[in-house]
Amino acid sequence: MTDKKNTAAPAAQPAAALEAGEPILRLGDVSYAYKKGGPLVIDHLSYSFDTGRVTSIMGPSGAGKTTLLSLISGLTVPTGGRVLFEGRDLATLDRYDYRSRDIGVIFQSFNLLPGLTVLENIMLTMDASGKRFDRPKKEIALELLDQVHLPRHYADERILHLSGGEQQRVAIARALSDDPKVVIADEPTGNLDPATQEDIMAIFLELAHEQDKCVIIVTHSPQIAKASDTVFELKARR
Amino acid sequence: MFIVRNALCNVTRNKGRNALMIIIVAIITAAATVALAIVQAAQQARASALDNTTITAQISLDRRALMGSTQPSGSDGTTSGEKPDMSALQQSMADKQLTLADYEEYAKADYGVRSSYYTVTASLAAAEDGIEPVDSNGTVTSSSEDSSDSGTTDTQDAPSAPDGGMGGGMGDMRGGKGGMTVTTGDFSLVGFSSDEAILNAPNGSFTMSSGEAFGYGEDDADEVIVSDTLAQANGIEVGDKITVANAADTDTDYTFTVVGIYSNATDEAQPQGGPMASTASDPANAIYTNEATLTKLGLTPDKTMEITDSRGNTRTVQSAQLSFTYVFAGKEEYDRFVEDVRKAGLGHEYTISSEDVERYEQSMVAIDNLSKFATTMLIVVLAVGAVVLMVLTVFNIRERKYEIGVLTAIGVKKAKVATQFAVELLVVTLVGLAVGIGVGAATSVPVSNALLSSQVEQQSQQMSQFGRQMQRPDGGSSATDVQQAAPQLSDAPQGTPGFGEHAQNMIDQLNATVNWATIGWMLLVGVVLTLLSALVAAVFVMRYEPLRILADRS
């Protein structure tokens, strides 16, 4: 069981930030059970995620990392407590809007649409957000490819023709396409070679530090944890 | 809306799957289009077949109904069973016989009757020094004895119709038409009320080969026209006077002036009644005149005469038979007439019948069958189509669960996802519908005509079986049976009888072209089925849990 006491935040818990104002994303005594009355996968968890920082969520298998990811990405709602985005309870918000506008999620298996091209995948998310863009979407999408270090000639390639690392970069570009405040990544470096891992991590750090986004990474990798600003460690349930 | 754009892109992205879908929808649509075109064409054929033609109808006494009422034993009056009380029957027949005034009473424009005409037919015997009738072999008989012997049985005395069957019923209905039903005597004298009556002469249409037709005035009262066969056999020329005798009283001679010689459009060497029929039933022995002639001679339906049959029994029969025909502008008027006349008090022992309508019904048999078949096919095809479309949609959408997951995960609302799938489905089915309607339009006419001709053939075979039974000159059948058959046959259209003929008259062409109505219906049905399938898709999408995307690692 994980509880507050067991929750470790070794890299200088920013108490000052908490007091200064509402964090962008906050877990308020969150619990989650898959079945009503069933065992709690997440048990009374509280935590704050800040903008401008890269936070790694670590923990052994079964500690509830994926569940936590689904809670903060608005795919589901907690059975107890609240997930607050900018002080508003996610359970009361339109979570489709939340997913399409406020956050960008990079799934472990990327979850790109294989039939679409790189550009189409990115632009579909921009369309889905319903946001207005001051420049042509294609231009923004091509710039995002630059940002994730993917050559522009990939723009019209089908996803199926890309390698894992390339798909990962497209997934990141897609997550960033609608300019979200929070970027959530699930095992973003799982199957990548060390050089690519480093490159990807550099992109995340740049997002947090230069674009002032809240970056949350769910990972097993100690290197990622070490490179991130904050590590939120989940303990294995007994 | 990006969802629509995405849907349209998806249609081209999944070419193989959508092509398959288009083919299936097109096949179903083509089949349904042809079926619908047939059903609509059949309806139209039914509605328009009698639109521009006039309909003639007769009122006749239903012998069978009358017999039922005079026969308390309840036997249906077969020849083998107990004979009905003939004198009672005859009496009631005589009482029930409609007079010219009765007929004219119903010939009101209020009832939908456009015009009416009638013929009065009497039979005449050969006078001793007069002309001789043409017998069945086309030669002049030397003596009239044979024919007058065999002719003594009047059709009205026929104890019954052949048991059961269609023929019996039709015989009863047509029995009253009169024209050629008089089988006594050697000649038939047919008096026409007007040119319209002549146009519808009982022996079929004819042309004047020399001379001209009689007038209708009192002055024209002894003018007659004779058939070219009879003229040839007796050496009659226009202007000659011919002498014939009263059928009941051979001492009473009548003399007519031949003003013309006519030629029947269809020449029948053989009278229809078989070897024992009277020569009076031979069209060649029909002497045509105006109705005034018969009135002048006292040969009117309200008078009677006594004839003696071969057993020496003397019976009283009508001097002449009246055949009254009503003409209607269309089927609608005819139907109104039937209704109005019944309301006006025409009893149920009378039958109102129209050969045109009967023939029309006969001609519609094949089309009706085809229409029934097409309706069944339409229902089956649409039901199968609906099921196939839904199954395909369900399979399609199950295959695309991942896509639903991705779209909902990036925040596309389920309703929009469902809309996207519906639009995709609609685009694909619309293309399939268009192709299917096109194929259906191209094939509906040949396909429906092929189906119709096989129907006609099938019906013809059945009909000709009936026909053979009816015409069988069975040695075992009595003379009355044979004569019973005669009037029905000679009453048949164009003088060429038989049920097989009817079958051949069946409409064997159907203009099953696909019109805008067909296209409209098909589109409507197609769109409704698509929306139904889209609803299934929507239910599937709505039930999808976005959380499952985390498990969908494909």
Task: Name the descriptors.
heterodimer; A: 238 residues; Rossmann fold; five-stranded parallel beta sheet; 9 strands; 21% strand; B: 554 residues; alpha+beta; six-stranded mixed barrel; two-stranded antiparallel ribbon; 12 strands; 50% helix; cell membrane (chain B); membrane (chain B); ABC3_permease_C (chain B)
How is this structure best described in words?
The complex is a heterodimer of chains A (238) and B (554). Chain A is an alpha/beta fold and 238 residues long. Helices cover 34% and strands 21% of the residues of chain A. Chain A has helices at 15-20, 65-72, 95-102, 118-129, 137-147, 164-176, 194-211, 222-227; strands spanning 25-33, 40-49, 54-58, 80-85, 88-89, 103-106, 182-186, 214-218, 230-233. Chain A has a five-stranded parallel β-sheet, with helices on both faces. A four-stranded antiparallel β-sheet of chain A has the order 2-1-4-5, with helices on one face. In chain A, helix 7 links the parallel strand 7 and strand 8. With 554 residues, chain B is α+β, with helices and mostly antiparallel strands. Chain B has two domains: 2-49 and 364-550, no CATH class; 120-323, no CATH class. In chain B, the strands form two sheets. Chain B has a six-stranded mixed β-barrel. In chain B, strands 9-10 form a two-stranded antiparallel ribbon. The A-B interface holds A 66, 69-70, 75-76, 96-101, 105, 107-109, 111-113, 115-116, 120, 124-125, 127-129, 174, 186 and B 2, 5-6, 9-10, 13-14, 402-403, 405-413, 546-547, 549-550, 552-554.
